[in-house]
Amino acid sequence: MAEKVFMIALSPTMEEGTILKWRKKEGEVVKEGDILCDVETDKASMEYESTQAGKILKIVRGEGTAAKVGDLIAILGQEGEDISSLLGDSKAPAKTAEAVKTSSPAQSAVAPTQIVQPSSAQPTGKASPLARRLAQEKGIDLNQIQGSGPGGRVIKRDLENYQPAASSKPVVPAAVLPSPLNDERIPVSRKRAVIASRLSESLFTAPHIFLTVTVHMDPLMNAREKINAELKEKLGLNSFIVKLAANAITRHQAINSSWMGDYIQNHSSVDVGLAVAQADGLITPIVRAAHGKGIRQIDAELKDLIDRARNNALKPEEYTGATFTISNLGSFGIEEFTAIINPPGAAILALGAVVRAPYVEEDGSFSVRRQMKMTLSADHRVMDGAVAAAFLTDLKSIIEDPFRALL
Amino acid sequence: MAAHDFDLIVVGAGPGGYVSAIRAAQLGLKTAVVEKDKPGGVCGNWGCIPSKALINQAEGFERIKDLEAIGVKVDTSNFNYAAVQKKSRDAADRSGKGVQFLLKKNKIEYIQGTAVLNGPQSLLVDGKEYKARFILLAAGSRPRQLPGFEFDENQVLSSTGILSLTQLPKSLIILGSGAIGMEFAYVMSVFGVKVTVVEMLPRILPLEDHETSAVVEKAFKARGVSFFTSAKATELKKNSQGVSLTLQLADNKTQILEAEKILVAVGRVPNTENLGLEKVGIKTDRGFVVVKDYYQTDVPSIYAIGDLIPSPLLAHVASKEGEIAVEHMAGKAHEKRVDPLSIPGATYCEPQIASFGYTEEKLKEKGLAYKAYTFPYTGNGKANAIEHQEGLVKVLMDAKTHEILGGHAAGAYATEIIHEILLARKAELLPEDIATMVHAHPTISESVMEAARGLEGWAIHI
């Protein structure tokens, strides 16, 4: 039985390779473990060891040609076998050497027939098989229909009684007040498209880990109140957090780094972005080198940046390239949430509202403290849970006892 | 005393009346039932139940042949039909007691007597007035009497008369080949009575599908039963020996049949005459009470169900109609009427016959596009094992939507297996759903699966 030989991934990141030289010629016998050919990958020149045995009946990709992982490069078998049928389909079902090896027997002549969907199958809510069939025939969307059968099942009667509305809009019962909402189609703005693509890319490619701690906020809030009592320009809470987070980050390099695919890029400057809501989107103006700035300076910068962010007056260098981001929904009363990492950063901190809540003292008595929940989202490709946890507990302890920041 | 004695008074304690009364009690209505005869009605006393007791004994008697085939000699010299008949009466008594027990258990007042409507919410039972918010009429029906063929219950029998016989006649003419006629033809022929069945329409069991009716006809002929179809009974003469029946045949020839007795089973008529309907203004049409949705009459407080109205005259139809009517009174109704295409019919002769929905003839007549598939019992392992190869399952579906339009079965267990097809129709399943369901082997029910597969083009055992 003739077998196909596919290009395999000879390095973990290899997607394609160029065949430099065939070590075996057509007609030669190959044993398992023999070197078939030399392949140039993205990194180096590698030897392709055969996992199959047999006579080389045909070399499909000659020397100097490139083959993607999974492409057919040769056919092994017995002398005189008809291989014309194998040459038709030149794609392997899987891409790794192991998978190619184990899947070869499945290349046999009989292919499983395609699974036929029953005519009445329509992936939708509860409906009788007859109702589904009728709906399919009449082109009615079953989801538009209120079922009157047992357990709310859509039955034949419901389809017979169904009056499709003039447009595709669902029917609005006459007695209902006009909806304050509308059915318009909103074109996606450039900004929306960027947000959509960046956040999707982040969430769907970076494996997020989420860690949450509760922070005792009385010391920081008290200190801030005292300081603010003497200042004309009051300092925002975010400015304190930006400063303390930047301080903590200086002891945790992994937080201040970026995943680059085949390496991790460390950053020496802690550039903290703060997520700011705009009428039509979201932007993260950046306080550069926040670790080296005082709270008053950070606060002044933030006030200016936020002001201009809301007026769409930021320059690109003022909002791109944050190494760490803070998002605060506490002013909306949100107690706790998870944020999506803002690339190229490797972590984002989500701050909840500062709320008065009962606290259990060590002796079992209760006290009331101002507390805040903060959740760190970290890129698991860059760091593991313990690394992220060490940073977060460090940050918690310096917020709870800001003197530590001086250490 | 309250304005009303009861929330509901049901007239008649047959399968329509007593089931309605129990359902009403379940729904919290204070309920009474008026019955002039016995609890259980015709079904329990002079119909379904005692006739099934007879049939069961006929089946046992017929199996003597099977025993003899394996060398067991059965001495039938002391065979006594009176004992058979007594068993049938015992069954009727048990049935009546069962109904009485259920009424009592549900705290339903049982009033013995004859009820006449006295007003929209008033009844007179043997002169005494009872008031109720609702009245449900479930007075049933009686055997139809043909002019010139009046029942004397000696030579000219009704179904009630034949159930009362304690001695078998030597020969019997049965006028009418519906369910009642065929069931008695079966019982009598098995016990050795020479039976001749006369049917006015071109074939026996005229309401059944032609294929299932043919299965029964063939089996009965093998048993020695004679059939005259397309035959009109024109004259009946009685003499001391028996009866003499004149038939006018299809070719206009005349045939004279002689027998000891004649059973006239040509349908039933509703007991609508003495209910006082005209007094409260309830209309009738050809003897049947006219009803609207939920079986409500023109008088909103009065409902009528069962054999009183022009729906199929079957016990289970009466029960279901009663449930719907009572649920409507209690504000809990979820269907307006029984779907006429989802009513099963069962005839307990051997082979049995069962059906619901359209027959193939009816679909042709209506011009509906349909597909039919008939799977014969010869392809069924269980049927072969128990030597009941005579039989078939037939399923009819809409050619386009595949909706099940009818189900027909003839043969062993036909009256049981029909329900799988009927449940499929009721739940709006398609033949493909039955076709792909795993059925235990060996069972007669596999024939249902095979018929469904046949419609899908892939019956296996044929």
Fold and architecture overview:
The complex is a heterodimer of chains A (407) and B (462). Chain A starts with a strand and ends in a 7-residue tail after the last helix. Chain A is extended and about 95 Å long. In chain A, β10 (257-259) and β11 (264-266) form a beta hairpin. Chain A has three domains: 3-106, OB fold (Dihydrolipoamide Acetyltransferase, E2P); 123-143 and 151-160, no CATH class; 190-406, Chloramphenicol Acetyltransferase (2-Layer Sandwich), CATH 3.30.559.10. In chain A, strands 9-18-17-16-12-15 form a six-stranded mixed β-sheet, with helices on one face. In chain A, strands 1-8-6-3 form a four-stranded antiparallel β-sheet, with no helix packed on it. Chain A has a four-stranded antiparallel β-sheet with strand order 5-4-2-7, with no helix packed on it. Chain A contains nine helices and 18 strands. Chain A has 407 residues and is α+β, with helices and mostly antiparallel strands. With 462 residues, chain B is an alpha/beta fold. Chain B has three domains: 6-143 and 269-340, FAD/NAD(P)-binding domain; 156-266, 3-Layer(bba) Sandwich (FAD/NAD(P)-binding domain); 351-456, Enolase-like, domain 1, CATH 3.30.390. Chain B has helices at residues 15-26, 41-46, 48-62, 64-69, 81-105, 159-164, 179-190, 210-222, 277-280, 315-329, 360-366, 381-385, 414-426, 431-435, 446-456; strands at 6-11, 31-35, 109-112, 115-119, 122-125, 128-137, 141-143, 156-157, 171-175, 194-198, 226-228, 232-238, 243-248, 254-259, 261-264, 268-270, 284-285, 288-289, 302-304, 345-347, 353-357, 370-376, 392-398, 404-410. In chain B, α1 runs parallel beside α10. The longest helix of chain B is centred in the first third of the chain and has 25 residues, at 81-105. Chain B is globular, with a radius of gyration of 23 Å. Chain A binds chain B through residues 118-120, 128-131, 133-134, 137, 149, 155-156, and chain B through 400-403, 427-430, 432-433.
